[in-house]
C-alpha cells in the first residue's frame, strides 16, 4: 500500500520533532534536567526583561493554563522566576534565573551543533536553502478554496 507524499506542514512537524529529539536527548545526556516541548518553547519566546504568562500563551498559541503549567514547572526546576512588573502592580513577569540562562545558552550551543550535523547529512547548501525559505517574507496567509 502506498502512502501519499507528506505535505509541507507534516514535513515541518517531522523536522521540528527531529530537532527536539536531538536537543532533548543531548541535553539530558549532558546532565541537564529534562524539559517538555512546551517548556522549551517558553525559553524561545521569553523577552530579556521578562514576559507575562498571558503573553507567553499568546506567542505559544496555547491556553493561559497550559503556559502557566509550563512556566511553573520551570520555576520549580529553578530555571525561571516570577518578579513584579515595574510598569504594573497587578502584573508579574517571568524571566530566566542565572541557572536558566546557563541552560538556555547550552541549549543554543547544542542546537548549533545539531545544525552542523544536519549540514553534514544533507549538505550546507540544503541547510542554507531551508533557512532562506523559512526566513523569506511569505506575506499574509492566503485565503484559498480548493477545487
From TrEMBL:
The record's listing under PANTHER family reads: MARR-FAMILY TRANSCRIPTIONAL REGULATOR, TRANSCRIPTIONAL REGULATOR, MARR FAMILY
Under the heading Gene3D superfamilies, the entry gives: Winged helix-like DNA-binding domain superfamily/Winged helix DNA-binding domain
| UniProt-listed GO biological process terms | response to stress
Specify the protein name.
Answer: MarR family transcriptional regulator
In what residue span(s) does the HTH marR-type domain sit? 28-127
Example of a GO MF term: DNA-binding transcription factor activity
Highest taxon listed in the record's lineage: Bacteria
Amino acid at each position: 500500500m502506498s502512502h501519499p507524499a507528506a505535505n509541507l506542514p507534516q514535513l515541518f512537524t517531522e523536522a521540528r520533532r527531529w530537532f527536539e529529539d536531538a536537543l532533548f536527548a543531548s541535553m539530558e545526556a549532558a546532565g541537564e534536567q529534562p524539559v517538555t516541548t512546551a517548556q522549551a518553547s517558553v525559553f524561545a519566546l521569553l523577552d530579556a526583561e521578562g514576559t507575562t504568562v498571558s503573553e507567553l500563551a499568546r506567542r505559544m498559541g496555547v491556553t493561559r493554563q497550559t503556559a502557566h503549567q509550563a512556566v511553573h514547572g520551570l520555576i520549580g526546576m529553578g530555571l525561571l522566576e516570577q518578579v513584579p512588573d515595574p510598569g504594573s502592580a497587578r502584573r508579574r513577569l517571568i524571566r530566566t534565573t542565572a541557572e536558566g540562562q546557563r541552560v538556555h545558552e547550552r541549549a543554543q550551543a547544542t542546537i548549533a551543533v545539531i545544525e552542523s550535523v544536519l549540514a553534514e547529512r544533507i549538505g550546507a547548501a540544503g541547510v542554507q536553502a531551508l533557512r532562506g525559505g523559512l526566513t523569506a517574507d511569505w506575506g499574509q496567509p492566503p485565503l484559498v478554496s480548493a477545487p
